[in-house]
User: What shape does this take?
Amino acid sequence: MELQEAKLKFIEAWGKLGSEWGINRTMAQVHALLLLTPDAITTEDIMEKLNISRGNTNMTLRDLMGWGLVEKQHRAGERKEYFFAEKDAWLIARQVAQERKKREIDPILKLLNELSEVKGDEKDPEYKTFKTSVNGISKLTKNVNKALGTMLKADENWFWGSIFKIFK
Amino acid sequence: MELQEAKLKFIEAWGKLGSEWGINRTMAQVHALLLLTPDAITTEDIMEKLNISRGNTNMTLRDLMGWGLVEKQHRAGERKEYFFAEKDAWLIARQVAQERKKREIDPILKLLNELSEVKGDEKDPEYKTFKTSVNGISKLTKNVNKALGTMLKADENWFWGSIFKIFK
DNA sequence: TCAAACTTTCAATACTTATTGAAAGTTTCT
DNA sequence: AGAAACTTTCAATAAGTATTGAAAGTTTGA
Assistant: This one.
């Protein structure tokens, strides 16, 4: 496979994966492009390579910066802004996990806690089922969340060492 | 909070969470309803409670059965079909993880392997960056996938014991 | 202060995905 | 075989998301 073909395939696949996991396809593709590009590039470059509009490119870059996946670069004597992505896979995973934890897991946990408090008649099957389901999900989510929190605080070496040595 | 209000909130939140993670909102809501319902219920019941059409209900139930989250129940002397959901949080998480691994992670891993094979000039920065990014993502994905695979095979007790005791 | 160079915004529009509902299909009973 | 009871399909449509592009905004240097 040619390098150029491989790059296109990667960008396409990354976009698809993103959309399957609730991340805007364009956002994933711009990210992929920046991952594969050695130096920082301009909005113009991105528009051209991915065939997307200026507006879309601008908003997507803003989102990516919001996720901490992309940074701006100013160059002395130049008016244009340049963008580049962090290329370390572990740091990328960390940022994405952190962002989704904050935006999605934390709110649902808050609700699950409230729902766990709901009182009712222990003899009522509706109540018993509600409690069983909510408590089970709540407990599991809390544990997953705790694990995620620990990983987010941890550094790369700890992660590769402690976690993956469990799995052969 | 009242039980009925709590149930509605749970269904709504579950639907939202689902859609944020690329799972059809209705599918997540039907699943939530079944989780909260002690006994098996009919298509008609679901249509009524969630205000959705017969067609939508039917297709959603089919999907849920495809994910192994819901089962059909036949009752002697009855023509109608009844549906119910597995209520154990761990089993649910397992099924969802298994399904997404198969549909989404396995294909991307296959591609990453192919992309890792691409040869090029080690002095070309484009090639070097491509290699670094793809290899990093590939390695991380492989490890996560391996971990997931082990967990899927493992039983509940192993999971709660071995994994979560790492995190305080 | 002006205007060129560049960035940001957002209403309009295109695209994607979900949903409806009625017709077609199936099963079961008499 | 016929018809009632129920399920499935799928073309049409609605709803939800993403994208465009041109106008407005900003910054910089002469």
About this structure: Chain B touches chain A through 59 residues (CB under 8 Å). The first helix of chain B runs from residue 3 to 20. Chain B is about 70% helix and 5% strand.
